[in-house]
Structures are given as structure tokens and as C-alpha cells.
Amino acid sequence: MSNFIQGIPRPPQPQAPVLGSSKFFAVIIPVVQIAIGSVYLHDCPVQRLIPIYLIVSGVFGMLLAVLSCLPCAQEPKDGTSNRLSCVCMAWNSLTAFFLFCWFIAGNVWIYSIYEPNYNQTATDAGPYCNRTLYLFAFWITTLAYILLGLALFCGCCVLFCFFLCGRADPDDGV
């Protein structure tokens, strides 16, 4: 079994410009999260944790993106692992786990007040939430679900194609 796993070729590494541009785009959303959360920090009394959710998500998302660029985060080409890469992998795993838990908490905070009062001056409507802040948080969270659904759909399609194309003929003896 281990010979089989060792015989699987490694996927080609993306070229530096592709890798750099993907990291750049992976950092854009956390920067915008931090900016919007900071600008509207006190503009959502109905759920004061939404701007904090955006700031913390942005900081940890950027931290995860930056840490994945460090040489200790890459696996050595010879397949061995050193102590620093194990520490880096553990830290990245803990950060990703925290982001997952924080994402669930953010879902509760964002979706529990759907659709809030956006009017700050209305006294009879109760607490409000800034429209830009709330809609950004709402659509970033919803976009995560859309991308997850798309990834699951594409993964199922790929598996289905592998299943159809990978069938062995009965006379192959496999």
C-alpha cells in the first residue's frame, strides 16, 4: 500500500506569478473586512459583534494567507518534514479551526437579525445597523456558502466523471 502511495506523482506546482496573484486576491477580502469593520465599529447597536466579527475574520484570514507564503509552510520536495514545518502546519491548522468556529458564530450574529433596521434616525424602529456594514457581512457570509456549494458540486461532477471513465472492462481481470 505504501508503495502505491509513493508511486502517485506529485501535482505540478503553480508558477510564481500565478501563486503570487492568487495570494494577492486571497488577501483583498480580509483587508476589506478589516476596513469596513473598523470604519463602522460603532454603527450596529442591534448586534455590536458584527463589526468585531469582520475585523477578527480579516486579521486571522490575512494571517493565514501570509503564513502560507512562508517557506516553513511548504512541504520539502524530498517528502521529509522538519520540526519547523510541523509547528507551522499545526499553527495553520489551529488558525483555520478558529476561523471555522468564528465563521459559525458570525453566521448566528448576522442571520439572527436579518433584515435589520437601517435607519439610524428613526426612534420608533429600535436599534439599527449600518446598511453597508450589514450587507457586506451578509453577502461575504453568503458568498462562502455559495463557493462551498459550487466546490461540492464540481467535486461531485469530477468524481462522477472518474467513475464513468475509470470503469474497467470485465475482461481486463481487474
From TrEMBL:
InterPro entries: TMEM272. The chain crosses the membrane at residues 21-40, 52-73, 94-114, 134-165. Keywords: Membrane, Transmembrane, Transmembrane helix. PANTHER family: MARVEL DOMAIN-CONTAINING PROTEIN, SI:DKEY-19B23.12-RELATED. This is Uncharacterized protein. The lineage of its organism: Eukaryota, Metazoa, Chordata, Craniata, Vertebrata.
